[in-house]
Amino acid sequence: MIDTRDLVEKREELQTNLVDSFNEYFDTEIEDFDELTKHISNSEDEDVQEWRDDNSDDFEHIKEIDELDDEISEFSFGEILILEDDFIEYCEDMVADCYYFTDVPSFIKYNINWEGVASDLSVDYTNVTYQGVSYLVRAY
């Protein structure tokens, strides 16, 4: 599971590192990521474009986080990205956290159709992709 607040921090870290790297490499005083991207897009300097290409993975990672931010309405407040393959287990844990199962007989508790429960709960979730992996996130 991934908390989107961690992705917000990751994006800020990547942006800060890129600004610092650019400033160090070119001996400039660019203050923030927006200024950096404007500078790069307006520059015809081959060295600047080569630096951009050398750091393309970080720029793409930022872009991917930005796209998730646009796609997930509560992104900055903290939503959980649940691995699609772990959704059934997530549902089991969520139900156990929400409901009191100590008085439920084991022959019932251990025969709950968790795949069906997960299927029913999945209508409240939407699929997103991050780093090539499919996740489910609460849809609002």
Report what the structure shows:
- This protein is α+β, with helices and mostly antiparallel strands and about 140 residues long.
- About 60% of the residues lie in helices and about 15% in strands.
- It has seven helices and four strands.
- The protein has helices at about 5-25, 35-40, 45-55, 55-70, 85-100, 105-110, 115-120, and strands at about 1-5, 80-85, 125-130, 135-140.
- It has a four-stranded antiparallel sheet with strand order 1-2-4-3.
- A hairpin with a 2-residue loop joins strand 3 (about 125-130) and strand 4.
- Helix 1 runs antiparallel to helix 4 (about 55-70) and helix 5 (about 85-100) packs across helix 7.
- The chain is elongated.
- The two termini are about 20 Å apart.
Task: Label this structure with key terms.
single chain, 140 residues, alpha+beta, 7 helices, elongated
Q: Which geometry do the CA atoms define?
A: elongated
Helix content: 55-70%
Given as residue ranges, the uncertain stretches (5+ residues, pLDDT < 50) are: none
**Count of strand segments:** 4
Largest sheet entry? 4 strands, antiparallel
What is the averaged pLDDT score? 95
- Strand order in space, largest sheet: 1-2-4-3
Instruction: Please state the structural category.
Output: alpha+beta
Please state the CA-atom Rg, rounded to the nearest Å. 22 Å
Report how far the terminal alpha carbons are from each other. 19 Å
